[in-house]
Amino acid sequence: xxxxxxxxxxxxxxxxxxxxxxxxxxxxxxxxxxxxxxxxxxxxxxxxxxxxxxxxxxxxxxxxxxxxxxxxxxxxxxxxxxxxxxxxxxxxxxxxxxxxxxxxxxxxxxxxxxxxxxxxxxxxxxxxxxxxxxxxxxxxxxxxxxxxxxxxxxxxxxxxxxxxxxxxxxxxxxxxxxxxxxxxxxxxxxxxxxxxxxxxxxxxxxxxxxxxxxxxxxxxxxxxxxxxxxxxxxxxxxxxxxxxxxxxxxxxxxxxxxxxxxxxxxxxxxxxxxxxxxxxxxxxxxxxxxxxxxxxxxxxxxxxxxxxxxxxxxxxxxxxxxxxxxxxxxxxxxxxxxxxxxxxxxxxxxxxxxxxxxxxxxxxxxxxxxxxxxxxxxxxxxxxxxxxxxxxxxxxxxxxxxxxxxxxxxxxxxxxxxxxxxxxxxxxxxxxxxxxxxxxxxxxxxxxxxxxxxxxxxxxxxxxxxxxxxxxxxxxxxxxxxxxxxxxxxxxxxxxxxxxxxxxxxxxxxxxxxxxxxxxxxxxxxxxxxxxxxxxxxxxxxxxxxxxxxxxxxxxxxxxxxxxxxxxxxxxxxxxxxxxxxxxxxxxxxxxxxxxxxxxxxxxxxxxxxxxxxxxxxxxxxxxxxxxxxxxxxxxxxxxxxxxxxxxxxxxxxxxxxxxxxxxxxxxxxxxxxxxxxxxxxxxxxxxxxxxxxxxxxxxxxxxxxxxxxxxxxxxxxxxxxxxxxxxxxxxxxxxxxxxxxxxxxxxxxxxx
Length: 753
Prior knowledge:
Helices cover 46% and strands 11% of the residues. The protein is an alpha/beta fold. A five-stranded mixed sheet has the order 6-5-4-7-8, with helices on both faces. It is globular, with a radius of gyration of 33 Å.
């Protein structure tokens, strides 16, 4: 089975069957995607994580399809209706829809109008009419009048015959395939407000009278309309033109022009309206929803990846502030590893305005705990607190950084936070989370449900299982790409390391607490229940900086230590010398070390790692400075140029924090001077950007921004910020005609909230 699947998958994603088969074997043995991608390049031909994930997911789909195929074959065989021709057709079906269409006539049914008509003995009449010979329909129908069976007159007999014909037509796999294609190519989604819901459904007002070709509807718009339907504000209809659909069916079954054919035409209309349209609409609703979900999840995945891989400040003593007004600002001091050393509350803002006492407290804490950076949450009172901190005369070398606190409140009330800080309240936990995000965003964000981090579109509307699996894959990929320090990492971070999981991560932390720091990677084998397979999968992604073996601090896998030792021996040097001296590595001829399972791809990776052992792939930390005096939306003026940080990138624009407690929207048409087809090619989450204010709507808290060099088109020759001006070449989009409020609400995923 796997070999056949491998051939199919290879053809679909343009790979060699050997590559796919080897990948499936590794996955079947329990290898993880990051491990295969990093340490089994010889077996897969150098496939990356995306390709390996595609193989894994497609294989799962094909397995499920095969299970359904086997069930259908058995079901029809049990009915003693499985002919060699039918069996061949079932085995040849390549999609679930095709399979279900074939099975439909044999699928056990509840009582239907057609089954009732058959019980009345009307099937021969239906067959006679369906053949469309030259008959007198009424004369033939009168022969089937039987009051005992419930057929009172000829018209009732004809009605029953049409019901039978309608079911036959509906169960035709060929007809269903054509109608499905018509729905896919031509279906229009029509949205209307439900009478009486106009006032309470104002957030959906752009969809009160709306229609668009379904295949052209972007993900966010479809999800918005579906949410409106779910909240019983909108009614949706998805279908092609009725005449086109009926005509498509008639081409299959109407063969002549006579009385019998007229009855078949009536049956076709009934079939489409009563049976086929509802069925196809349900099917295409599910398919379009799945596509919209996948698109929204891809956006979420990319944003999450960028956020998780945000540049860390690094090991610094940090003072973190969770700002507030009436309840004050919670202040915590953390050491270089993020350990909580002290907490207290200060009240520098309204209404208390205890600026002198608060300033004294901050200065005292900076000195006492040798603070190197200050992290301030970007929520309520953030800019006021930032202004206060900057006004008290701190040394210039102390960085003051605004930190995105999305999800910090979720963490502070979570089981993880309660276990970590059982003796502290949620305000202290929240401040700690803000500080740790500055030190190492990845290590802290893995403790929070990814859906709560605030970088997704409609995350509560998409398929939750699909979303969770996809986001988990993203977190696993990021954690293993960076690597994890074995002796300082939390069990939450360790749980995402290849081959571990929550229980082994917990066992590692408990072993570490009882026995002290790990001295070498080999010590991992002493952890309870951590067997050889888990060690193989995890060891290369775990780091021990001060190990006696310098390779333990690198991404070189322990299974390749012998190769590196031989290289060092051949150079008449130590492994440490090999890692620090470029001239020694240049002496090596990699071909000499090639073996059956250790080829040039692995050896090349080893050489790169020896040159920069344990290198963090994340960018260097970069400060973002919000404009002084611009603290609230009311401080903004059209034309103002500001520095900001991207908080969310979507298919139709990006949201930017400019320090006024409300993100501004840079629509896709204002991301660059020229045509932009992909937001992700221009901006990433957590990226520092320069923007110009285009529009400010204070009552609605809407801010429109631009990243163009000349957003108001005042000149024609200004220097471009991204690329040459080709705005006249940009094709118009339906999104351009939407209101700013609609764009913002859709992209931010705030419908119904």
